[in-house]
Amino acid sequence: MTAAPAVEAVELVKHFGDTRAVDDVSFVVPAGSVLGLLGPNGAGKTTLVRMLTTLSVPTSGTGRVAGFDIIEQPNEVRRSMGLTGQAATVDEILTGRENLKLIGALYGLPRKYVAEATERLFARFDLTHAADRMAKTYSGGMRRRLDLAVSLLAAPPILFLDEPTTGLDPMSRSGLWDVLRELVTEGTTLVLTTQYLEEADNLADEIVVVDKGKVIAAGTPTQLKDRAGKASVVVTLTNAADLDAAADLMRAHSPEVHVERGSRRVTAQAGGLGDMTRIAAVFETSGIELDDLGLARPSLDDVFLHLTGHRAETEPDAGASSSDATTEGVPS
Amino acid sequence: MTAVQTARTSVTRPPIHPPSLLRASATIVWRNLLHIRRMPEMLLDVTVQSVMFVLLFAYVFGGAIAVIGSNYREFLLPGIMVQTMVFSSAIVAMGLTSDLQKGIVDRFKSLPIPRSSVLVGRSISSLIHSSIGVLVMGLTGLLIGWRIRNGVVDGILAFLLLLLFGFALIWLGIWVGSLMRTVEAVQGFMFTVMFPLTFVANTFAPTETMTPWLRTIAEWNPVSALTQACRELWGNGPPAPADAAWPLQNPVMVSVAWSFIFIAIFAPLAVSAFRRRSRD
Questions:
Q1: Assigned domain for A260 exists
Q2: To the nearest whole angstrom, how far is the Cα of A259 from the nearest Cα of chain B?
Q3: Are residues A291 and A148 located together in one domain of the fold?
């Protein structure tokens, strides 16, 4: 569509007293893409979103949403975007339907449109059965979905989501991811904050890693993973007896090969998918039986540790699995 | 082409006509009143609680409080109505803090509406809330013998004075509500302020029998002027005794003056506190 970016942050700064919550942050989000703002609690993600959505006034710097300046043209910005805040900000005392009616009236949308859009959004978000119940009777996932329906009522081309899946169970989380992906295929630009590396990895085209108010890295998920270390081809053999033969075969294609006897695995440092297909072809003709062959990249978790020196999530068991790798595998 | 358009239905935007201050405020009032309809227990503070006050004072303490030239129940009703009105500042403060706390104000602020509509809507619905209380109070009063004895014009004037005073104190509520972080804190603070304000006055007992220093405070208390004004306009009691402080000699004028003084002090404080809270 248009070449103009959907969202821009230009040297945004926000101080709260002596705290620099956001310290000179700039980024550009092309229309129709998904930007993930990734960072731990207190990194300044929410403050960034609050500034871009005109809820908070920057100490300095500015931003543009749909081409409108957040300081000079706040009302145009508000008309162009939807916001789903950190806590689902639905009115608990109102029913689901009344929540949409309220927001529709405040946008000045035609009643008929609001009524139709409500049916459509509720059907889409699986809320039709609860439309006339007070929102306080909703589960966490339902509230999020209602919040999202409210944000989408005026069909904004740009949607900001502040930690959209925090506190949701895995089922609701993946359900919400599906909805967000659908929105993107329809052309909506998304800016989402998250503490979950997995979420950014799953949804975002472009990730901006924020820590202590500053941008410490930016790029596609793949680019960021490459920064944390090389990918490797991991081969799991059916018979432990073949381990040495397999290692020899792989040495011809990679400078560094490790053998793990206990798990019958041979790992070879690799440049990417090309190396993996070459190695797969070699095994195809070698007669060595494989259980699995795949490309392992460092996870975003590793990236985060590499960039900040600390983990993104402070779960007690997180330290134990620091070398976990995601496998983009081809079963053999 | 048709296929593409169908696939993109949800980004085809509907016409957005941002509402005027009046319409946005009216919508927010509708929402706040819907809360009251859903949770009638929200009205307990101005209904059951106030009726209980009337009955307690009229029947438990009433016999022990002597009022010259009037019966105690007639004397009491204006005082209770003023108290109900004064408490509307606590109601507005709690409502505002609750909306701020729950992120509802953020939601409103992310919409293309005049931001002042959040405050205007909240003020109007709080005034309606308190007026329901005054109405219930009036009906209870009629049942136990209270009457408006000085004609319609004076009767209405007294109700208008009550509304004006309530409106003035709403700004105090907005100020406190914008400064505090939790509903519990607001409740604690407002009730600590409101109880002495409404009791150290002529609301429930005549000031003549108080010790001199307390009597002076009570008679200069803005709540006393308003109560005296209502009593005189409704014909519920004699004029203030000759030795009463000056405000009680000119209660109507003084009530109006206090209302404007409160607006002049608290409205700027309230707006700047709300703005400051809204900038972060």
A1: yes
A2: 51
A3: no
Q: Model confidence over B80-123: pLDDT tens digits?
A: 999 989 988 888 899 999 999 888 998 999 999 998 899 999 99
For residue range B166-205, list pLDDT tens digits in order: 999 999 999 999 999 899 999 999 989 988 999 999 988 8
Contact A211, A45 (CB under 8 A): no
Q: Could you tell me if residue A2 is inside a domain?
A: no
State how far the Cα of A40 lies from the Cα of A51, in Å rounded to an integer.
19
- pLDDT for position A282: 86
Tokens representing B102 are 């729950």
Write the DSSP symbol of residue A166. T
What is the count of residue pairs from A and B with beta carbons less than 8 Å apart? Answer: 106
Q: Is A4 on the interface with B (CB under 8 A)?
A: no
Are B110 and A53 an interchain contact pair (Cβ–Cβ within 8 Å)?
yes
Chain B residue with minimal CA distance to A57? B279
> What ipTM goes with this model?
0.83
CA of A27 vs chain B CAs: smallest distance (Å): 21
- Give the number of C-alpha atoms closer than 13 A to the C-alpha of residue A118, restricted to the C-beta side: 23
Question: Which among A108, A150, A154 has the least Cβ separation from residue B13?
Answer: A154
Asked if the C-beta of A98 comes within 8 angstroms of chain B's C-beta atoms, the answer is yes
Q: Nearest chain A residue to B31 by CA: give it.
A: A102
Q: The CATH number of the domain where A296 resides is what?
A: 3.30.70.980
- A214 by Cβ neighbours in 10 Å (0-12 / 13-18 / 19+) ranks as middle
Let me know whether A73 and A133 are in one domain.
Answer: yes
